[in-house]
């Protein structure tokens, strides 16, 4: 039973590792937060919210799988290898596929121009909320781009593009 609960701790450490070290994972978190916040302006059903949650989780999970594959490949070889590059590129492609699906889902769920106009009107009439939204942008920028470690030097050795 103890090992069962340890597995949750290890999984939590893996999620934290993704947050700490993966800029794209942090970007997906930020996008999910903004999409969720703006979703309340729409008349979404419970099914729509389930679709959103599945979309968020598939993108984030594929990003974590991509990271795991990249780390495993890096562990196996310190030399440039076409096979290693292909494995890493394919894993990155999987993330791209889920991200494209997420954008298509967003267009389907949030493509109502009248609601977009309503959101703009809401923020133009509610200055404190507009200020809060504006303040959230640099905070999000720092979260996404200013946090974490930089693995660019490590990845040069494995054929990744800068």
Mind explaining what this structure looks like?
- The model has no long low-confidence stretch (mean pLDDT 90).
- The protein is mainly α and 162 residues long.
- The longest helix has 31 residues.
- It has 7 helices and no strands.
- The termini are far apart.
- The chain has one domain: Orthogonal Bundle (Helix Hairpins), CATH 1.10.287.3610.
- 83% of the residues lie in helices and 0% in strands.
- α2 packs antiparallel against α3, α2 packs antiparallel against α6 and α3 packs antiparallel against α4.
Structural class designation = mainly alpha
By CATH, the architecture is named Orthogonal Bundle
Q: Using the CA coordinates, give the radius of gyration.
A: 19 Å
Order of helices and strands: HHHHHHH
> What is the first-to-last residue Cα distance?
45 Å
Give the overall pLDDT as a whole number.
90
Remind me, CATH topology?
A: Helix Hairpins
Uncertain spans, ≥5 residues at pLDDT below 50? Answer: none
Number of folding domains? Answer: 1
| Shape field | elongated
Which bin fits the share of residues in helices? Answer: over 70%
Largest sheet at a glance? none
- Total E-strand runs: 0
What top-tier CATH class fits best? Mainly Alpha
